[in-house]
Amino acid sequence: MSSAPSTSLQDIISHAKEYGFVFPSSEIYDGLQAVYDYGQNGVELKNSLKSVWWKAMTQLHDNIVGIDASIFMHPLTWKASGHVDGFNDPMIDNKDSKKRYRADQLLEGKAEEYANAGQQEKASALLAEMGRLLGAEDLAGVRELIIAEGIVCPISKTSNWTDVRQFNLMFSTQVGSVAEDASLIYLRPETAQGIFVNFLNVQKSGRMKVPFGIAQIGKAFRNEIVARQFTFRMREFEQMEMQFFVRPGTEMDWYASWKEQRLKFHKAIGLPAESLQYHDHEKLAHYANAAVDIEYKFPFGFREIEGIHSRTDFDLKNHQELSKKKQQYFDPEINQNYIPYVVETSVGADRLFLAVFCNAFTKESDGEKERVYLKLHPALAPVKAAVLPLVKKDGLAEKAQEIVKSLKSSFRTVYDDNAAIGKRYTRQDLIGTPYCIAVDYQTMEDDTVTIRHRDTTEQERVPVSLLKEKIGYEVSLERILESI
């Protein structure tokens, strides 16, 4: 079979909903923009991605441990981190369409147009100028640049723009039993600060020596004004972050090392090298002295799935100043106290899910018949094996259920006897099940079954006694971990 035309984002969204991966949140009430629920297959895939990331961090590295910090934190945490004063997006409205846009994304889109037209120098110059204006907080200059570049609203096709304004992205709420006594607190906009405020707790209780890392998976919340592109940009999302504490002066070596290690991880879970690239930041965040994104080629272009940042000592130093509690580490090797520098790796679990799903979605055609399947790494597939009796009679169904029972404690196995076996194969292909086990009349004679392989549709005869070992080996997360 030859590959069919390229996949659109709408293909992905439709498939995700139809086959139980992602649903619009509270859809019976017409949904809530930029909020999604993971269905029965989506949650399995997402949990597998979180599990392999967690193991890659905490199991493969002797000097990385994990925590699970609260979503609610003392409000001064966000003052120290810079989020209260500086966690803003520059927004601009088109007066004719009444639509709101992120000013930086309009300019990045124009730069992408230049790059696609082979005008790389022009693209770089535009991004550099945008970075300079935003860094200087020259919002009037940003508006002038948008107009000078001839950027128009995609809906009204006019450049009738308002001034650029900053919007803080944090959700606020109140804590306290009586409204008058309630204190303003925030839903965390990132998971990193939960790690920083626990730096000394982990270091002392675990007797950790620099360099060491703290990993965390957790929900974060951002009031995105312009949320789009399915699960790529959501208001409630999940981060997989690791903060690596190092001796000042060594951070750039560790930055280079983690940059390389994280790209290797994405390749190990099945994302192809040609669909991945590094993108160095033109404009650095206030806390960083180096930053790079690992980008994946989505149907809507290359976009960030992970950021690697050298955060210096910004966070711990600010928490020390505001809390009046020392955030220092005594390094016995150099007999010195210091605030460690930090190298951060931060992956969006939802973005990684979307990248893996887009990459797996496969359409093939032989000119007459089209085949659609999810080419997921066997260790990530929601269902690892499906057991299908050829017919329901003559003891085949009972034998198939017996096989399911023998396998399901080792890996997720399902039973399906509904419709012709060809339709059942297709049903499993559509959710990415790597192995279908057919139970037929020969099974009743010699206790062998046919394994059908999802990607090739090839079949092989295997004794029932070898199924657990054979399939178990292929679907184990070890297959991914050993290649990192």
UniProtKB/TrEMBL annotation:
Q: Which residues of the sequence carry a binding annotation for ATP?
A: 222-224, 232-237, 304-305, 348-351
EC number per UniProt = 6.1.1.14
Q: What class of enzyme is it?
A: ligase
- For whether the record's keyword set contains Protein biosynthesis, the answer is yes
Q: Which PROSITE patterns match?
A: AA_TRNA_LIGASE_II (PS50862)
The entry marks the following residues as binding substrate, namely 102, 190, 237-241, 344-348
GO terms (molecular function) for this protein are: ligase activity
Instruction: Please state every residue range assigned to the domain named Aminoacyl-transfer RNA synthetases class-II family profile.
Output: 124-382
- Kindly give the Pfam families that the UniProt entry links to this protein: HGTP_anticodon, tRNA-synt_2b
**Annotated catalysed reactions:** tRNA(Gly) + glycine + ATP = glycyl-tRNA(Gly) + AMP + diphosphate
Location(s), subcellular = Cytoplasm
Matches recorded under HAMAP family? Gly_tRNA_synth_B
- Give the similarity note: Belongs to the class-II aminoacyl-tRNA synthetase family.
What's the protein called, per UniProt? Glycine--tRNA ligase
Its source organism is: Ravibacter arvi
Q: What is the lineage of its organism?
A: Bacteria, Pseudomonadati, Bacteroidota, Cytophagia, Cytophagales
What would be the name of the gene that encodes this protein? glyQS
